[in-house]
């Protein structure tokens, strides 16, 4: 996962995904399958993407009682994805159960998928967290609390904003992964994202992987946009 740019394939169906990926023929990608695509296509979309040799983040953000999450993760592990996730708000017992499910479902001889926890969605602002979630401290403290809980529960990392990744690595070490959506090049709209930063800022934070959706998928030339963001993220000067 280290130094990856993960493209969020937020499309309604397989046809649109395969059409989008045609432009990326020469690239081996790390792609994210979210709720919309997975709910419409089911596991066959994972099969199709694996056939194209792409790495896959299955972003279903599980959040339920431990037994349910464990059983669901056992199923997800059998798909052969590289990365899956839960909401840290589900608690340490739920996160431990998620790992047990993954261990139980991973086919023998294969590595279990990495499992990370969403801390606070990047679409949540400080004001929303205070007024709607009644968090007592700052939003950053809430993110750090969830990250510490995830690490104590044995998870491989967290989903957070690029604005919090540096703080998390400082406290929890560089090996604990930070995966950050909320990436917006300077010229891009924020849309529903609240805690955003540029790819260049992300590079300075020691982030493991950035997740980018609309700035690539809605671009006039998605491949060009992908390459530009990737170069900014890797610090490549053209
Ligand atoms: O806190 C989170 C967790 C997940 N996401 C997902 O990342 C992508 C971001 O897409 P953009 O189009 O670049 O905004 C999207 O699939 C979300 O479901 C997130 O944004 N924030």
From TrEMBL:
**Which sites are catalytic?**
59 (for ompdecase activity), 61 (for ompdecase activity), 61 (proton donor), 64 (for ompdecase activity)
Identify the keywords attached in UniProt to this record, alphabetized. Answer: Decarboxylase, Lyase, Pyrimidine biosynthesis
Query: What is one GO biological process annotated to this record?
Result: 'de novo' pyrimidine nucleobase biosynthetic process
Instruction: Give the stretches traversing the membrane.
Output: none
Report the Pfam families cross-referenced here. OMPdecase
Q: Which family does it belong to?
A: Belongs to the OMP decarboxylase family. Type 1 subfamily.
This protein is called Orotidine 5'-phosphate decarboxylase
Classification of source organism: Bacteria, Bacillati, Bacillota, Bacilli, Bacillales
């Amino acid at each position: 996962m280290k130094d990856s740019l993960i493209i969020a394939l937020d499309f309604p169906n397989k046809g649109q995904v395969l059409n989008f990926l045609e432009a990326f023929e020469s690239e081996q990608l790390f792609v994210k399958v979210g709720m919309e695509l997975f709910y419409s296509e089911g596991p066959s979309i994972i099969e199709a993407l694996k056939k194209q040799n792409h790495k896959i983040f299955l972003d279903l953000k599980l959040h339920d009682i431990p037994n349910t999450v464990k059983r669901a993760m056992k199923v997800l592990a059998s798909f052969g994805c590289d990365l899956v996730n839960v909401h840290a708000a589900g608690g340490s017992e739920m996160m431990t159960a998620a790992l047990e499910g993954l261990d139980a479902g991973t086919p023998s001889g294969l590595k279990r998928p990495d499992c990370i926890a969403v801390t606070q969605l990047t679409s949540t602002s400080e004001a929303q967290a205070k007024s709607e979630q009644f968090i007592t401290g700052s939003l950053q403290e809430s993110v750090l609390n969830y990250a510490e809980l995830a690490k104590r529960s044995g998870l491989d990392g967290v989903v957070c904003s690029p604005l919090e990744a540096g703080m998390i690595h400082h406290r929890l070490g560089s090996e604990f992964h930070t995966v950050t959506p909320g990436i917006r090049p300077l010229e891009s709209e924020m849309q529903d994202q609240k805690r955003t930063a540029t790819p260049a800022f992300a590079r300075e934070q020691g982030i493991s992987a950035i997740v980018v959706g609309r700035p690539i998928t809605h671009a006039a030339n998605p491949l060009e946009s992908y390459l530009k963001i990737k170069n900014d993220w890797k610090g490549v000067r053209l």
